[in-house]
Amino acid sequence: MKLSIKLGAAMTGLVAAVTTASVLSIGAYLRREVERQLAEDLDRTAAVLEEVQRARLERLISENRVVADEPRLKAVVNSTEIDEQTVQDTAIEMREVARSDLFVLMGPDGSIRANVSSEGKPGPVPPPGTAEQILAREGFRPGDGAEGADRREFHAAWVLQGELYLCAGHVVTLSGRPAGILLTGDRMDDRMARKIRRQTNTELVLLTHGRITAAAIDEHLRERQAELAAELMMAAERRSRGSFVVTVSGRRYLAQMARIVGLAPDRGADAMPAAFFVMLRSLDEAMQTYHQIRRDLVRLGLVALGLAALAALLLASTLTRRVARLAEATATVAAGDLDIAVPVGGSDEIGTLARCFNDMIAKLRISREELRSKERLEREMEIATVIQTLLLPAQPSLDGFEVAARMVPAEEVGGDFYDLHQGAGGGWVAIGDVSGHGVTSGLIMMMVQSMLSALARRPPEEVEDTSPRQVLQIINAALYDNLRVRMHDDNYMTMVLLQHRGGGRFRYAGAHESLLVHRCATGVVESLPTDGTWLGLQEDIGPFLEERKLELHPGDTLLLYTDGVTEAKSPQGVQFDVVRLREVLQRCAAAPRATAERIRDGIIEEVMAWSRARQDDVTVLVLRRLSSGNEGRQ
Predict the structure, then answer these.
(1) Which distant-in-sequence residues (6+ apart) come within 8 Å of 556 by Cβ?
(2) Quick one: CA dihedral 72, 112, 98, 144, positive or negative?
């Protein structure tokens, strides 16, 4: 395929991708913005709806208070000798004064003295219960009988015979004592819903026991009230919070539930209420602007695609020849000929590419030589790795102890070192770490191992009189001469050397990671410092070495390790650290049937799980003292 065609296709594809991304991103933004604005409108409608309910309740309470204080009403309530027709006629007149849809007069025993509605017939009665129970349920407090001493009014929302009523109640008192209760209420119907819709331009539905009992909605929803009620009840059963989308016969609406002031839950705070308002706004109408903008963007994108294809063809005709020369030179280099140069021919990007190509060829010549050197170095590293591994003791042992050791090398040859020697004059245990990585570190480790092996194999009478401090002085002097004087190298080594004197008694000296000892009797892990100085930094380290003593009792465990354990990092960059190591040692050593090998494996597994990428060697050496009857056997 020719370059001009490729450039045309690439630029056309780029413009198409940008146009598509723009349409999608702008569309997503507009949809979110439309839904946000509609949600804010629904929040405002909810506030208006609650304000209307509260205003209606305040009017009910005010009118209820006036009627409750009427002398005629008090006379009817107080007297049992007035005939029922007189009580009913009085109730009808008082309902007109209260302008309420519900008017119920109850006696102090909870009996219904009068019950009239706006339709001129008995209305629904309040929830069952005596007057005292209603007073207690609505929060009345008993007082001392004085006028005004009690809270005499209440308001509530009740579902009566499948309809929602906003109700107000007033205690009718005579001589400072309750003589009855006057209840008045307004039915929540389409009139109030239409009033809210006029104020907020929002569709409004009242659902009572899963049935629409009041609504102010558009023609589409009015013709499909059963489908609308089913969708809204499913949303209510899902406990939808905030705004949610409902679809009614293909049209989408953003909906939000609103509470009814004074309506108590039937079965706890989380139960679905018996009645609730739902406010709706049409999403399809609100998204009409988005659809128009999307059509305009598509037209603009088609024009941009045509211009991009034309520009690509014109640009390709001026670039093809120069790019062809670069292509020919690239083929020559691919064949292995690095003795070639490309004419620059300009200061634009193609000219820059030609200059970079010539620089690349020069660097490739250098890299070829460096690669050969690197291959030689890698072969040397492989040899050093084999030597380092072979020098570590295959089956370390120490009289009276279970011994388990393991080194997990990093990607490069490291300088981690451990060794054990058991002789007639006692045992020697060493662990250390050479600074840096690579062949030099491995060679330093081999020097130290060779010197320690020679010193530990001396005659018993010589070994017995030699302390770890003296051995470290000898090794340091030889290491200093090799590194600083002969090799002119600035590496050094941390090392701690322990001498087993028998019966679990040790002397040790050196500077390395602290020793961790798990005491079998108490289950406590002790941390013992290793004071001293590093090997190879100065010729005489005697003044800086301090020798300490350690005694291990049967069942006690000594853990030696290198900094590759404590400095192992998790993917988040957090170090394993010595505190976590102590916890792992305490857990593994206290486990049933714990052995030195199981403790070693448990620690290494924890470190490997913590850090998947190893930057340093991980070395663990575990000595667990056997019981008196098992000393001398592994």
Answers:
(1) 504, 517, 518, 519, 520, 624, 625
(2) positive
The rounded distance, in Å, linking the Cα atoms of 581 and 586 is: 9
**pTM reported for the whole predicted model:** 0.46
Q: 375 or 499, which is more confident?
A: 499
pLDDT tens-digit map of 438-496: 677 778 888 888 888 888 887 777 767 788 999 999 999 999 999 888 888 889 999 99
Q: Using CA of residue 515, residue 516, residue 520, residue 523, what is the dihedral sign?
A: positive
Question: What letter does residue 541 receive in the DSSP assignment?
Answer: -
Query: Containing H/E element for 321?
Result: helix 288-334
- What strands, in cross-sheet order, belong to the sheet with 163-174? 112-117, 102-106, 177-187, 163-174, 153-160
Q: How far apart are CA 293 and CA 144, in angstroms?
A: 72
3-state helix, strand, coil in the chain (%, to 5): 45, 25, 30
Inform me whether the pLDDT recorded for 632 exceeds 50.
Answer: no
Beta bridge pairs of residue 212: 207
The reply to whether 392-630 shares the fold of 69-139+152-187 is no
User: CATH number of the domain at 69-139+152-187, out of 3.30.450.20, 3.40.50.10540, 2.170.120.20, 3.40.1160.10?
Assistant: 3.30.450.20
Beta strands in 358-474 (DSSP E): 401-408, 416-423, 426-434
Cα Rg of the chain (Å, integer):
47
The answer to whether residues 275 and 159 touch, using CB atoms and an 8 Å cutoff, is yes
Q: Higher model confidence: residue 334 or residue 214?
A: 214
CATH class for the domain made up of 392-630 = alpha beta
Strand order in the sheet with 416-423: 416-423, 426-434, 493-502, 505-511, 548-551
Question: What would the pLDDT profile of 167-186 be if each residue is shown by its tens digit?
Answer: 888 888 777 677 778 888 88
CA 150 – CA 143 distance, rounded (Å): 5
Tokens of 499: 């001498």
Element (H, E) at 531: none
* pLDDT tens for each residue of 208-242: 988 999 999 989 999 999 999 998 888 888 866 78
Output 121 or 561, whichever has higher pLDDT.
561
Domain spans, the chain = 69-139+152-187, 338-390, 392-630
